[in-house]
UniProtKB/TrEMBL annotation:
InterPro entries: ATPase_proteolipid_c-like_dom (IPR002379), ATPase_proteolipid_csu (IPR000245), ATPase_proteolipid_su_C_euk (IPR011555), F/V-ATP_Csub_sf (IPR035921). GO terms for molecular function: proton-transporting ATPase activity, rotational mechanism. The chain crosses the membrane at residues 6-24, 45-65, 85-107, 119-144. Proton-conducting pore forming subunit of the membrane integral V0 complex of vacuolar ATPase. V-ATPase is responsible for acidifying a variety of intracellular compartments in eukaryotic cells. PANTHER family: V-TYPE PROTON ATPASE PROTEOLIPID SUBUNIT. This is V-type proton ATPase proteolipid subunit. The keyword Transmembrane helix applies.
Length: 154
């Protein structure tokens, strides 16, 4: 059977890295802002939560890919492998890029929100657009993963 079960784990790694970077970068902003304005800490934790969702997207695509791999099958077609590879890369790299965007925007936005509370809505809108990048990757990954198994006539 080979290393076919390593594929989902590898792609979850990319989304996990994006979630970790976004959480760490935004968390630093929340911690430094909490020193100046402790009453805004719970309101400013939104970027950290949004970054954590990226890891869930990676988990979803990893489960979808792993359910598409049959360990009892005699062969694993090349088309299926490339479909799983492309779906995992689409979701994982989109999650990584979204995590970097959420981390940078979250850090700067939380610090700016402490100085000027009117910037909160703008920060949330930019974070939503950054989160949409990962959501697009998840949708493309699901579509590509659904193509696996269509290469053979049964």
């Amino acid at each position: 059977m080979g290393f076919y079960f390593v594929e989902p784990i590898g792609f979850f790694f990319f989304s996990g890295m994006g979630a970790a970077y976004g959480t760490a970068k935004s968390g630093v902003g929340v911690a430094s802002m909490g020193v100046m304005r402790p009453e805004l800490v719970m309101k400013s934790i939104v970027p950290v939560v949004m970054a954590g969702v990226l890891g869930i997207y990676g988990l979803i695509i990893a489960v979808i890919i792993s359910t598409g791999i049959n360990p009892k099958a005699k062969s694993y077609y090349l088309f299926d492998g490339y479909a799983h590879l492309s779906s995992g890369l689409a979701c994982g790299l989109a999650g990584l890029s979204a995590g970097m965007a959420i981390g940078i925007v979250g850090d700067a936005g939380v610090r700016a929100n402490a100085q000027q509370p009117k910037l909160f809505v703008g920060m949330i809108l930019i974070l939503i657009f950054a989160e949409a990048l990962a959501l697009y990757g998840l949708i493309v990954g699901i579509i590509l993963s659904s193509r696996a198994g269509q290469s053979r006539a049964e």
